[in-house]
Design brief:
Blueprint: H1 9-12, E1 17-22, H2 34-51, E2 59-62, E3 70-73, E4 81-82, E5 87-90, E6 96-101, E7 105-111, E8 116-122, H3 124-128, H4 131-143, E9 151-154, H5 167-177, E10 185-187, E11 212-218
Parallel strand pairs: 2-4, 2-6, 3-5, 9-10
Antiparallel strand pairs: 1-11, 5-8, 6-11, 7-8, 7-9
Length: 223
């Protein structure tokens, strides 16, 4: 297994949890539209999923329409791309959640008590709609999760001064408002637009760019 980014360390130290964030892949040309870029990146992304110990067929992705709807994913579901949602959650081991980003925030939420997971796409619009608060409330309703048990991580995203809206700060406020202790929220602090050698930035690259892939899963048996 490859080394996951430092800001995911707390999650990967939890029993059974597998988290990764796949950044820029220099060898893949991505100066094109989203669909073709994602297609070109798929072999590398497949390798990252396999490095976590899963297969590409176990990966569930959100369509990502910049909304606040969230799908509850079960292992028995055959759908791989969930339409009209920007968040995914599960309590089933063996389900891999995936979110593509290129400036928007990927937010990881893990409940180590109920073994529930959520992965969200929260950019300007999703943050305005408080997809984070909605997800935490849904985890309470569906899985009995308690906010004080949650570990939450915000991956690299665009930030001021590269972008006029500080939605990373807004996400933090929403996490705190939902009742998650400050010590259990990790913001990596990385701006995607400030390091094009490591990340894709839709804004800096004027739409012709690739996508990073956030991954979150629970191993079978929580080995």
């Amino acid at each position: 297994m490859t080394q996951a980014p430092f800001y995911l360390q707390k999650l990967n130290e939890l029993p059974g949890v597998c988290a990764d964030f796949v950044g820029r892949i220099d060898s893949v040309p991505v100066d094109t539209n989203r669909e073709l870029a994602v297609h070109r990146l798929q072999p590398a992304h497949e390798a990252s999923v396999e490095a976590l110990g899963f297969s590409w067929g176990q990966l569930h992705r959100a369509e990502q329409t910049h909304g606040v709807d969230i799908a509850l994913v079960q292992k028995s579901d055959s759908v791989q791309t969930w339409p009209q949602v920007d968040g995914l959650m599960t309590q089933d081991p063996g389900v891999v959640l995936g979110i593509y980003v290129a400036d928007c925030g990927a937010l990881y939420i893990v409940d180590p008590v109920s073994n529930a997971l959520a992965l969200l796409h929260s950019g300007k619009k999703g943050t305005e709609g408080n997809i984070t608060g909605k997800a935490i409330a849904l985890m309470q309703d569906e899985y009995g999760s308690q906010p004080h048990d949650l570990q939450v991580v915000l991956a690299p995203c665009i930030r001021p001064p590269a972008y006029e809206v500080d939605f990373a700060a807004q996400i933090r406020d929403q996490v705190m408002a939902a009742g998650v202790p400050d010590a259990q929220f990790t913001d990596c602090g990385i701006c995607t637009a400030s390091d094009l050698s490591s990340y894709y930035s839709y804004r800096r690259e004027k739409g012709s760019t690739g996508r990073m892939l956030a991954l979150l899963a629970m191993r079978n048996g929580q080995e």
